[in-house]
Design brief:
single chain; 53 residues; little secondary structure; 0% helix; Alpha-ketoglutarate-dependent dioxygenase AlkB; dioxygenase activity; AlkB-like
């Protein structure tokens, strides 16, 4: 099944467990921009190494 989630500036998505293996992606960037970043998508990923968490 496919689930579409619309995100706007400032939104954060957090998932774990079985969901961490799910395919995820960004379909497209919408028109508009933020004064500080312009028309960009910023991705920050945190992961735990084996035995580290």
């Amino acid at each position: 099944p496919v689930t579409n989630i619309d995100l706007v500036h400032g939104d954060v998505v957090v998932w774990g467990g079985a969901w961490r293996l799910a395919h995820h992606g960004v379909k497209e960037l919408r028109d508009g921009s933020h004064p500080a970043t312009g028309r960009r998508r910023i991705n920050i990923t945190f992961r735990c190494a084996a035995g580290g968490c």
